[in-house]
Protein 1
Amino acid sequence: MRENVKIDVLRNIQLFSSLTEDEIGQITDKIRIVEFKKNEVVLREEDTNEFMYIVLEGKVKVIQVTEDGKEILLAIHKARDFFGEVSLIDGMTSPATVQAAEDSFIAFISKKDFYRLLVVQPKVVEKLLQILCSRLRDSWKRIYLLNFKHAADRVKTLFLSLCLDNGARTPEGVALNLKLTHQEIADMTGLTRESVTRVLDKLQKDGDIAVLKNKCFLLTEKFIRAQM
């Protein structure tokens, strides 16, 4: 990837958004970019405290595998998202595997370069604290979601949570700029795929959601008003 392209890409990453072009230029040589094909493993648990990762193009999913072999979907990271910084800070590995959900380009920053960046760029430290606080609040919402007994309430709460970071306001409502399969929604809510399908069918029938041409979901104004 050419140097000027790297700078343009990094400028759109939230962690580096407060840096000037010259400041971003100082860190481009510290970044290694790797292409991953769909379903390739980007990061294994034992490697999670060695690098920070930035999704430049594509989408990855963070999964845990239970003792009985069931996969639990913890998160989905799309272009401009980053992950792995917490493990660099506390030195502990994360009990999860990161896998490419589609063909993706991932940028790697080593632990040594990450700490050097924090020392010389206090603006990055400030952004990092803001992002970590936001993620903590999101984790609280996910725990709150799992307390719901009714499948519909879990799915609605998940959609509301996702629209904070992935929602785009339209005249018809809020479009989720994130493609989710029924199975992925099931994995994120602790439901079966069949239950999710029934809930989504009813939400569509009632006019609460719609499926857009790009297969993303639209939360209609009716849906938004009902959750306020």
Note: The mean pLDDT is 82.
Protein 2
Amino acid sequence: MAFQNGVKEMEPCILVIFGATGDLAHRKLYPALYNLWQGGQLPDPFAVVSIGRREKTTEIVREEVVESVQTFSRNEWEGGGSEDFLQKFYYYQQDFRDEESYDHLQEFLGTLEEEWNTGGNRVYFLAVAPEFFGTISEQLYHHGMAPNEGRSWQRVVIEKPFGQDLESAKELNQVIDRHFSEENIYRIDHYLGKEMAQNIMVLRFANTLFEPLWNNRFVDHVQMTLAETVGVEGRGPYYEESGALRDMVQNHMLQLLALVAMEPPVALDTESVRDEKVKVLRSLDISPDSVVRGQYGEGTRAGEHLPAYRDEERVSSASTVETFVALKVSMENFRWAGVPFYLRTGKRLPRKYSEIIVKFRKLPGVLYFQNETLDSNVLVIRVQPDEGVYLKFNAKQPGTGETIVPVTMDFCQNCMEGYNSPEAYERLLYDVIRGDSTLFTRWDEVEHSWRFVDKIAQFWKGSREDIPIYPSGTWGPVQSELLLREDGRDWLYHLQ
């Protein structure tokens, strides 16, 4: 891997997308590639092979790429000026369960490598159901498409979910690890590609305003909310297997939590950052009475009737799967001992947003601080849809009196005129091609997150209580509110 000014250079390669006829490729991957190409952030030369079971031609796929970009890209399609981009795309029809088809795929890729002079470098993006991760990895290796020998490299990108529990995750990892080294396995979590998720470390470690206060001496508690307004949106079978705990907490929430709570790494290289995240995941602890789950029932939003989860397509009418989770998490380490972290995520909530709230301790009751209305300082890191930082502090109200009022500073990055925030998959694809795995999860991160989530699943397995039903369009079951009120706190709802 070559470097220029300390940054990894891009080398020519072929991106091979398994499952390219699916939703992920059309909504995320094709637009991300187009935006990278527009920004001059793809290697030269570079080609894309879309693999699917449907009978198509390369011309049809190129038309689909245009449609995808026109519909989902943050940048407009340039028409004739984008012909060079389209010429990079090819289609290969394959049933990836058919072993013999991999010999033909190897021949096809070999021909393209000679044409494009990519030197054998390949990225395999597995946009397929998780049960096929092991099958494809194994066949790629056995048919000579993942040797990782000489000067060429082959990397595999795996979408979530990585397993259904710790045991299945271990089995899957063992299969993939036999054929790809850990440095060439990229377990993707798109939340880590979001602009403000990447900004958490900068906000903490590049500002003396925050880092000295980022501990149990000054922080009262931390809240994290990942709220969605939609239901399962036709993904009933998947959600019946995963639920909110596996779909959101095991990956997105714990990864963000690790960034918020980690110690300063000794360096900004990939492994140093990952080492500190693992320490956080190892320190997590939770008790049965600190877990709340719920499932959305019927409700209304803007006069529209919303069906209950159990009435959704291909969902059991007696399902006990959770669509809402709230947790009170503690950390057994020196920095955060005694500081609760409150996490919640759910579907069919009133607003769609993701944010992290750090509430600082109140000052002693002397001088101005005897004022009962004086509130704590609050820092909000907004991940989506707004991207930015909100800080609430206290100041004197203008006038002759001595009234103290809360005032705010609000920085919204994607609200600035002319700013067009890159999508998460742009950064993630860019990093995979460069060989930078900092924003991807290492196996021990996956392992410890599953240990924590499995512990919660065991709490529920042993419970005889019915799952609480909350009306669609509300903030979840009442037990979620009680989780904080028992500690004398409340959820802070999308502060303005």
Note: Confidence is low (pLDDT under 50) at residues 1-7.
Protein 3
Amino acid sequence: MQMFGKKRRWHALPGVELTEMDKQVMFWENKGKLVPTRDLIKTPEQIEGIRRSGVVNTGVLDEVAKNIHEGMSTLEIDKICYDYCVSHGGTPACLNYEGFPKSVCVSINEVVCHGIPKSTDILKEGDIVNVDFTTILDGYYADASRMFVIGKTTPEKEQLVRVARECLEVGAEAAKPYGFIGDIGHAIQKHAEKYHYGVVRDLCGHGVGLQFHEEPEVLHYGHRGTGMLLVPGMVFTIEPMINMGTWKVFIDADDEYGWEVITGDELPSAQWEHTFLMTEHGVEILSE
């Protein structure tokens, strides 16, 4: 099918022989599929920049893992993240981003994401905690989050944290060159729903690297063969938010900044996130 009357997202370069990538992308675009624009395909230099940023970003979360404990405040976690990032030449991307007041998102139990660090939020035995950090290094962005269990928690929370990690893994396994974003979401939804968990639909993964948020949107639910075509050189996050109950969420009315997202039934939620590079053979982790 020719895309007569529609603006193409992928253009052949004048005077340059078509590559295998060009042929693949144009084939799917001619079939009416959503394809990336060329600027979403990172150059080798850009990939190396994002990879360096990813090293710092992973180091931030490693530092949290060494220090997180019962009795500490989420504001202390913010300081750990800020100090490590800045001391390694980076800048916390979250700090003052669209009014977000801190360097990191720290989300406890029923807080799905975007939890704002506070001196009054003290970690307790049994809490499950998501720490989500994004680093800017030399203009390149890398983004990841991890779950932490404080002391001993319930079997139900332990399972939720484990299954959320498995959802990230099955989503990454489903991400193939010249497959589709919907393949990722389908795999995640199928795995989560085995446990009767809800997959959050109001928030998603995203392209990343040269900006904090780029195309494509990476939904964590859906159908195979839908969404944007995945092409080698694309960099994006997969970050499924898995709820023990309903997939529905709301913004905390007590949050003066309008950021904190809570599960609709106030049951616990868990999330893991990596930044991935799509290669000719599958995804490579750039930050975890």
Note: The first strand starts at residue 91 and ends at 92.
Protein 4
Amino acid sequence: MTQPFPSNNEYSGFNAPMRVECDIGDLVVEGALPKDINGTWFRLTPDPYYPPKFDHDNFFASDGMLSMFRFHDGKVDYKTRYVMTDRLKAERAAGRALFGIYRNPYTDDSSVKDVPRGVANTTPVWHADRLLMLKEDSLPMAMDPATLATLGWWNFDGRIRSETVTAHPRIDFDTGEMFLNGYEAGGLATRDISLMVVNKDGRLVREEWFEAPYVSMMHDFVVTKEHIVFPLFPTTADLDRIKGGGPHWVYEPDKPTWVGIMPRDGSVKDLRWFQGPGVSAYHFMNGYTEGSKVYFDFSYTGGHQFPFVRDDSGQVFEPQKMMCPYVRWEFDLAKPGDQWVEHVLCPAVGDFPRIADRDHMKDYDVGYYVNYQPQNGPPLMTGIAHMGFNTVTRLEVKSGRATHFSLGPGTTVAEPVHVPSRISGHEGYLLVATELHDQWLSDVVVLEAAHIEKGPIARIKLPLRMRHQLHGSWVNAEDLPPAARG
């Protein structure tokens, strides 16, 4: 018999596991869905099938659950399926958790010594007619976009050498190229980083390796039309600590932040390194090159965002260190030195940034992200940071003008996804999963991207609660195979 899950914040409240695979056709919709929303929103969520082997394990260690909202003919269908990894198959056969704490194989049951640990629970990516589930400690897992059946690990026809692939690839909208990196590419706690390029047909055409200054949790990176940027923040790994049964990651803000920049058509031998104060960040909105200058936009914090990393690092939560603005870092490659210039774009700190796919790697006008604003309600416990965001922000990056949307007290919001419009000059739409804490339900709001402050033009109602997602991707219907179009 399966035992109860721990009662801590990783596994209770809206973070309580769902463990539900289901199909719900023709969801209830309040309002009118725009006719030009036609395609599928794939979402990936950590959702443990069994209680963890150790109660203090964290949200990221959970099995991957892929869900999709399929928009077709004015209707919306919903489907969820577990990503059937080797790990989940082994645990289902045993009827219990066999793998130990997050990213530490030395705490696993001896029976799974040779079983891949990957849970494929972070980001679903559609590229070259293939749906890939990504988590940065393993290779991608391929799934069927129509049935959500698991197809197996994807190693790019055996061409890849890296043991890991980033959770956040960067896809060039104009060329179809996909840029990947893998940290700890050569094995657990190694300083090896792999740069990989996949062409529009899905073929791995380039892989180069280099050593980072230290082992960093490099969750995301930046690609422009002319450069590739590797930002390293001091959340670090140590093999001896891991072998001793300790945590994979600790935060060491006394170490510098490093940023490596190389020409996109050059080599990793051309990397130029910059350094500054140690901070913490995980997601980048966008980056672009203008002459000799490289820019990228994001939000960082002085303290660490994740409670489990703070605990493992012996640090206390300091709210003032979490209130950093949305910024742009400027690197002038024509000047000597290893420093950068910081510009404030918006005072509202936040995360989970998104832009229109067509704007990636270029100078751009508008981005979207989520944040917490106290005037929209008291803090609510959900997600990986144990405090949910309650506001969606639209940022005009050149002017700094920001507009906001919130459903008010009792609700939290997850990462938005941008849906392009087929109407010329139209900014498109945002889909946002919301958590209705007072009703113990979830729904999806549809916002007109240019006017989010006006509120939903439609709400898609779910008869259940969804566990907090990590990331999602939108795919237009014409880009999917016929069986996946609804």
Note: Residues 86-94 form the longest helix (9 residues).
